[in-house]
Amino acid sequence: QSSVPSLTSEPNSIMLVPAGDHYTMMDFATAYFREAQSMQGLKGLSAEKKSAADLVQHTKVPVQESLLWYSDSELNELATKNFKTLMRFMGDQSKLKNQNEVECIYEILQLCKEKESLHDEVYCQVIKQVTHNPNQESVLRGWLLLNLLTGYFLPSNILMPYATKFLQLASSDPSSTHHDIAKICQSNLRKNFMYGGRRHLPFPVEIEALLKGRGARRLVILMPGGIEYLTRIKTFTVAKELLQEICEQMGAGKQEEIEEFVLFAIRNKMARPIRSEEYLHDYLLEDQSVTVTLRRLIWRTPLHFENKIYTDVHYGQMLWDYLNGRILLSCSKEMEMQVGILAMLQHWAQTEQQNSAPSREELKEYTPKTLQSSISPQALQNHIGMLLRTRQPLQPVDAKIQFIEHMMKLPFFGYSIYFVERVSDDTISVPCFFGVNKEEIIVVDSTTQVVSRVIPLKELQKMRTLRPMSDGGLPGIELNYGSAASPKTMWLELSQAKEMYHTVVVILDKTELHH
Predict the structure, then answer these.
(1) Which family does it belong to (predicted)?
(2) What mean pLDDT is predicted for residues 427-452?
(3) 49: which residues sit within 8 A by CB, 6+ positions away?
(4) Cβ distance 226 to 316 under 8 Å?
(5) Taking Cα atoms as reference points, which of 423, 459, 460 lies closest to residue 443?
(6) Cα separation of 30 and 36, whole Å?
(7) Which of 155, 172, 321, 414 lies 20 to 30 Å from 11 when distance is taken between CA atoms?
(8) Residue 46 to residues 31, 42, 384, 468, Cα–Cα distance (Å)
(9) Average pLDDT, the chain
(10) CB of 481 within 8 A of CB of 455?
(11) Going edge to edge, which strands form the sheet with 270-274?
């Protein structure tokens, strides 16, 4: 038995798609199944071939030992136990008392999560049980399990070409009942190889839906400007795919522009950007308490306004940021004029408002919360009166475009702004603002708007989140930056520590891609 090659579950370095007649599961069984060793002495090639074929075919009786050879007796035991669970799930054996299909699937997935060295064994068991299985219902169950396995766990480098070949053959046979699900499994495996598979096991409700043949979940994406985008996501949809779909719908189909948008998962007012290669289901909870929103995070590609949704989304995001203090504005005479123009454009952006002057109440709504106490409503009304006498009213779409163009000229446009309450550097007066864009982190004085510190992102060496130091305290971030010759460290405390940390990570990801 020691002559049987052992399988190692090392990380994959290549994704093979074999051609020709090589790499069939029969070839794999002949080389690696423990039973194949005892057949080596059988006379005649056809007998050997027949026996190898039996090894990778459905069996009605549970196996007494693992299909692959393990020197560890515990793994052998877990493998034989798993085969019984698989047979119960597929309906080839009766279930244990009070055991249902969802529990069977969980047991199998949990085993794979805990024992990486059993990935190949579980793959081989499922492939064996869906091959030449006379019961169609049982076959469908097996393929449903393969659908989950391929999206969660990778086979080892050794099994990978054989598993890929098996899926390729199954998906290219249009007469089979499972060629569609085999295609899905192929796609899952490719994604798993590229992005690393889903992190969290599915909730029971997701497995139940899959067993009922519902492979997609309805999801509403909240877009800026109050637009709701309704879509359906599959078990292994990654953020990148959904971003592409949304961007194409709003006329931003070029890859470099799609890269500038990010999906955020929001729960209990805490926002977290989702990296483009992450699986959406890893963020969604069973109780629908997570909201997914879209934001533009990077502003490298020039804007274009031929699509109404595109214009509305950009206007909606900038308007919200402007009114809620996410774009820093300094209080000055010039700023007062700017606020007046932006209030007028907001008024014209509403339908049917081209011939009326905004009321005092409306003007308050059009003014950023941070400036409402420092700008006199009367001065603003006088300024607007003058604008109305000297300017031609604009149609809503043109007013929105002009508003966007005005915003883009503001000094802190393009930065994600965070309100920071404590900083380790006592030369920085607090509270202050930290801004992050595609190139740098800046520290801005909260009253004078003077930039007191600039940290280029390329100088950022390391970053980590910090837990609150006391009950009711604020979480923080520690930044290590500078050169090897002159390393620097700074920590900051802010309620949005996690959001800021993950935003910097996403920006670094996206700017690396760009370079």
Answers:
(1) Belongs to the TRAFAC class myosin-kinesin ATPase superfamily. Myosin family.
(2) 94
(3) 26
(4) yes
(5) 423
(6) 5
(7) 172
(8) 17, 10, 93, 70
(9) 90
(10) yes
(11) 227-234, 216-223, 291-296, 261-267, 270-274
Per residue in 121-134, pLDDT tens? 999 999 999 999 99
The residue with greater pLDDT, 303 or 514, is: 303
Question: Structure pTM?
Answer: 0.88
| Residue 251, both tokens | 């006329």
Among 339, 303, 326, 314, smallest CA distance to 437 is for: 326
Strands 216-223 and 227-234: antiparallel
In angstroms, the CA 486 to CA 194 distance is: 37
On the question of pLDDT at 451 being above 70, the answer is yes
- Provide φ and ψ at 454, rounded to 5°: -130, 125
pLDDT tops 70 at residue 418 = yes
Query: Which pLDDT tens digit goes with each residue over 330-385?
Result: 767 788 889 999 999 999 999 777 778 898 899 999 999 888 888 888 889 998 98
Bridge partners, 466 (sequence order): 476
* Whether 200 contacts 190, CB under 8 Å: no
Whole-angstrom Cα distance, residue 366 to residue 342?
8
Q: Quick one: the chain helix, strand, coil %, rounded to 5?
A: 45, 15, 40
163-184 pLDDT per residue, tens? 999 999 999 987 778 889 999 9
Whether residue 202 contacts residue 281, with contact meaning beta carbons closer than 8 Å, is answered with yes
28 and 159 Cβ atoms separated by less than 8 Å: yes
CA atoms within 13 A on the CB side of 243: 26
- CA count, 13 A, side-chain hemisphere, 375: 29
Q: Rounded to 5 degrees, what are φ and ψ at 460?
A: -75, 115
Tokens of 47: 């007998």
